[in-house]
Fold each of these.
Amino acid sequence: MPAIDNNDLTGTTRRKPKADVTEIGGHALSPSTLMMGYGYDPMLSEGSLKPPIFLTSTFAFESAAAGKRHFEGITGKRPGGAEGLVYSRFNGPNQEILEARLGVWERAEDALVFSSGMSAIATLLLAHVNMNDVIVHSGPLYAATETLIARILSRFGATYVDFPAEASREEMNAILAEAQAMAAKQGGKVAMVYLESPANPTNALVDVEAMRAAVDAAFAEDARPPIAIDNTFLGPLWSKPLAHGADIVLYSLTKYAGGHSDLVAGGVLGAKQWLGPIRMMRNTIGTICDPHTAWMLLRSLETVELRMTRAGENAEKVCAFLKDHPKVEGLGYLGFLDAGSQKDIFDRHCTGAGSTFSLFIKGGEAESFRFLDALKIAKLAVSLGGTETLASHPAAMTHLSVPDERKAALGITDNLVRVSIGIENSDDLIADFDQALAAV
Ligand SMILES: Cc1ncc(COP(=O)(O)O)c(C=O)c1O
């Protein structure tokens, strides 16, 4: 057993893992390699190659002084967070290893994991938004996120302005000016710019670089609101928004990161400056993910690149088949964008087209339902990013709560079927889509 690192000066007693190997002779290791062991030292756990699941509600302190020092970190009395394990509502070994590995994908300074994508989003907003503040957000957003901003935070005196995901730099300037005027009138501040790109379910892309330039031009650096972005559809492989000017990246880890449709979790990545208050809020309300889910995610991250690559290749083949099909009105697939501003954003921000797309069936709800009911391999279920192909009808399911006029404005039509392609054999998937379209 390694010696316990008793540091009497600071009062910390945490056994330190050995330093991670992140480069060999100047060659930087890729995230897919680091997913096998980064952030975990087997010698701290009896040599167990994989981390044990730490099923405990609390952690014993080496001394009362160590306990005091840890609580100073937990409560924010001392910056930098907890230096040791304290209580499972605050932190735990499985969650910390997962946070270390998740951060690798975007070279994030800090990462936090949550019990769901929505608890990550809620904790983020509760941490950064106060009464009379204004949130600027792109549209559409995942319906529960829209509900949270428009119907729940408004109960506590926060307001919002929204803009279409496809907005130009000029439109972004205008929306920020509108938000600043609203905030001044209300006696609050512009608390956050919240983006979702690609948007659920339309796949519309937001120009993150343009929004960062617009925010930098509109605000003094010390009064700048953070730009947060939901990267669930393309992350962590095909889009890395921190590199394009975002400050905080959000994930429903339930999707591609988990990847097997067997868990629910969320993640937040970014600089400590922005994540500090979110960590404090998570400590207070207890939205951290549980150790078992964290362990499952560590297992999933080992194959995330393999799974996403295969799903992306399959989606390209399936979309090539659907593109000119007589029963198909159109496709919202990022791999087939026509030249224009969306293609320009895609080329600058994304390294892959993903495997989730919108399929517009000729007809309306009845035709779309017939198609969905006829699928034999693809499962009729909401969610995305799993090993299996899923199809759903956003207007009647995930976005049912969105008012009809807003659905129409956002392009969430009755003939829109959302498809998430999995890792099955692509010829089998094409055969399934072919026979289901024949039933329309
Ligand atoms: C883009 C996006 N963000 C957030 C969420 C919420 O994630 P969760 O279901 O893990 O709470 C979802 C769920 O579908 C989503 O699609």
Note: Residues 258 and 296 are 8 Å apart (CA to CA).
Amino acid sequence: MSPYDESSSAVSSTADGEDRAVEAALRPKDLDEFIGQERVREQLSLVLQAARHRAATPDHVLLSGPPGLGKTTLSMIIAAEMGAPIRITSGPAIQHAGDLAAILSSLTEGEVLFLDEIHRMSRPAEEMLYMAMEDFRVDVIVGKGPGATAIPLELPPFTLVGATTRAGLLPPPLRDRFGFTGHMEFYAPVELERVIHRSARLLDVSIDTAGAAEIAGRSRGTPRIANRLLRRVRDFAQVRHDGEITKEIAAAALGVYEVDERGLDRLDRAVLHALLKLFGGGPVGLSTLAVAVGEESETVEEVAEPFLVREGLLARTPRGRIATAAAWQHLGLTPPTAPPHASLPAQQDLFGGSPEG
Ligand SMILES: Nc1ncnc2c1ncn2[C@@H]1O[C@H](COP(=O)(O)OP(=O)(O)OP(=O)(O)O)[C@@H](O)[C@H]1O
Ligand SMILES: [Mg+2]
């Protein structure tokens, strides 16, 4: 089997070039248009209304959650709701404190500074950000060595919106300086149906209720994936049919792209298949499982497993990976009457090694 290329999977949650090109057109423009995330939306709406009421700049906002759930979209909505301009940059783009100083010192009053992947900023930049967030001030260092002097610079009040897929990686002093943290959750299928109907309208695609439900169910709780699958189904409907998306057409199209009814792709299914057919449902060590599907352990662990675990199809145990009853059911296989891992001693005991190694 050829090595799995995540970027070629129709259900990868990170944005590819085509995604980026159409995402701008599909982004909701205000909080009312933003679908789902009721809790974050309500909290954020209070923060913004209160700020407007006081004619003040809203507190700094941290948005955390997996890729494709709407963090960038929300940051733009915050600026739009405040009628403020937005400056967009990212942690990896700010390698020197000087880069950040240049951005901060050019902000206008009330401006929203969106810092994507904030967990990937360099240490010195991060420390400069602490002071900027708290006191709206930075120290610009002029000169080098013993003659260097710090020139304090006042900043206009601004709102920092930080986004991260890894809130756990943020140093506590940085996390604590945000007045509000919004935790983004995966979307329910009915919410994704609404996302799909909305996008279909914007893309001028005709789709019925069952067609949207079919795509939503395969979108892994993620609007970015829902929008991408919608485009692939649209292509199929236009090339092979009259352009109208129904349940049958959606299912046939996503079959072509190897995305199954629950949103599993080729790698996900290969992992489950090996676990069930070769290892009787486990437990089996990660590296053994990876060899069986012809992939690197990291690919299996970081790309396939999180979704399989979230779906309740696979579990990680100290003795290795095991399949759940739902996994047997999903692949249409019958579990052995006495599961092997119930009667056999653990793999560790047989081989005297860790199944994780
Ligand atoms: N609540 C929503 N309603 C409608 N569309 C949404 C919603 N959330 C996200 N989308 C759509 O999903 C796409 C991806 O959203 P966005 O770029 O904001 O995700 P992100 O969380 O910033 O992802 P990343 O972590 O990769 O930067 C956008 O095109 C946007 O239109
Ligand atoms: Mg983003």
Note: The radius of gyration is 24 Å.
